[in-house]
Every structure is written in C-alpha cells, then in structure tokens.
Amino acid sequence: MGLRESEKVVVRAALRSGWRKRSEPSCKFEEQGMDEKTKGLSPLYSIELLSQRAEMYKVLAQLYFRPLSSEQVNALSEQDWKSLAEDGSAAADACNDIYRALRRMNTGTVDDLAADFTAVFYGASTHDGKTAQPYASLFMHDGNQIMGEACSEAYHAFKSECIRVAQGIDMPDDHLSFMFEFMAKLCERAKLCVDASDESEAMRIVSLQRTFLEKQVTPWVNDFLDLALSMVATRFYRGVIKLTGAFLNEEKQLLEEVG
Questions:
Q1: With contact defined as beta carbons under 8 Å apart, do 92 and 83 qualify?
Q2: Are 164 and 151 in contact (CB under 8 A)?
Q3: Fewest C-beta atoms under 10 Å: which of 25, 66, 143, 257?
Q4: Are residues 8 and 55 in contact, defined by beta-carbon separation less than 8 angstroms?
Q5: Alpha carbon distance 141, 156 (integer Å)
C-alpha cells in the first residue's frame, strides 16, 4: 500500500492537515515503463491542487485497504480534526465524526476499528443478504459476484496506463482502494506534465481521470457508501464513509469544470 512519511489529508481547502504513515510498503501499484513527456505547456491545474488531490486519494486508498495499525490510528489522532469539523465545508460533518471518535481513544480502540473494518469491508457481516466489500463487481452490472465484469474493466484501465496491482497483493483489481490509488497516480503524472510543460499529455490525463471516475467509480460508489454506512458500528468509519462521499462529489464537480 502506498504511503510516505507524511501525507496531507485534503478535500481541497477543507482538509488542511497530515497524518504520518509508518511501516507500510511504498505502493500497491507497479509501473511498467512510461516514456517521459516534455515540452511546452500551460498547466490545467496548479501543482498544489494536483498534489492535494493525489494525497487525498492516497489517504482514502489506505483507509479502505486494510485495518489500521496502532501507529496509524495514533497518527490520525494527532491531527487537528476539531478545526476541520468547524470550518463549514462539505467535509465538516465527516471530520466531526472522526474527531469525536479519535478523542475518545482507549486501549481497545484499535481492536474496535479492526473489528468494524473486518465485519464490513472484509464482508464478515451482511445487511439484507449483501456485503459492503468495496468491489465494483458487487454493485455494477448484475452485481453480487467478485471478479465480475467491473474487475476486467479496472484491469484494462490500469493496463492502458502501464500500471498493475503489485505482485503479492491477492485482491481483485476493482477494489476501491486500487481505484483511488490509480487516481492518485494519474494526479502525480499530471503534475510531472505540468513541470515538463507537456500540455497535451496533461489534458489527456485529466480527461482519463474524468472518464474513469464517471464510468468505473460513480456508477456504484454511492450504493456502496450507503450500504457501508448502514453497517459500520464505529463513529470513526462513519466519518470515513462521509468523507469519501464529500471528496468524490467535489472531484466530480472539479473534473466537470475542466471538461
């Protein structure tokens, strides 16, 4: 899973602070040889905004990938969620849930969060016969199956950009965590294009992000979030789910603006 020493949690201007990640592999993806792009450009986004979007996608990718370690929970608890909860943004309610969950930390918090994650996102529990595992195949097309058509679609989207899920990670490609990390990777590539003044490639990447979000994330993610929200037992994961929805709504609006 891709995490660095520090990572900003940003829903554009709403989330302003970072949480430090420790003892995690560098990335869930492997790149398979991309040519460097150079020459003349007018950037679509600022470097700052591209960086913020990439970091937010990485944070969400981590939160849905596996249960959090004690170090990660402690690092999250050190952040200023209270001020984020009071700033009136679309993410304020989500940040309030996270803040109130983490301020009540005790010796059982990590285990409680792990149990909640396992029950909901690993599919140990069901609601009306459905699990809230974060796989597109469970919600798209006819749903109710792992490794469905949506998995193939995600695989080919990754492959088209010379990216694949890293060896040793035995999870289908249409996991939401992988989709979020793919979007983060595209933000980072667009940032490189801005640095290299490669306008055409930056525009292609932004267009790809918009298409990927519209076709492979938006059609199912709200159903997943609604189901997961009805199942989670902890206020922390209620906040995570709300934060995901707020960020994706903002992403949709942002990508529509740039066409």
A1: no
A2: no
A3: 257
A4: yes
A5: 17
Indicate the range of 17-31, 171-185, 196-210 predicted with least confidence.
17-31
pLDDT digits (tens, 9 = 90+) for 42-63: 335 678 888 889 999 999 999 9
Number of domains in the chain: 1
Q: Does 16 reside within a domain?
A: no
Give residue for tokens 């529509």: 256
pLDDT in tens, 138-173: 999 887 789 999 999 999 999 999 999 999 999 999
Rounded Cα distance between 186 and 222, Å, is 22
Residues 6+ apart with CB under 8 A from 59: 7, 9, 19
Nearest Cα neighbor of 140 from 244, 38, 219, 256 is 219
- For residue 176, tell me if it sits in a domain: yes
Is the pTM above the cut of 0.70?
A: yes
- Report the CATH number at residue 175: 1.10.3480.10
CA–CA distance, 101 with 116 (Å, rounded to integer):
13
In a domain, 31, yes or no: no
Q: Locate tokens 């301020």: which residue? A: 103
CA distance linking residue 41 with residue 57, whole number of Å? 25
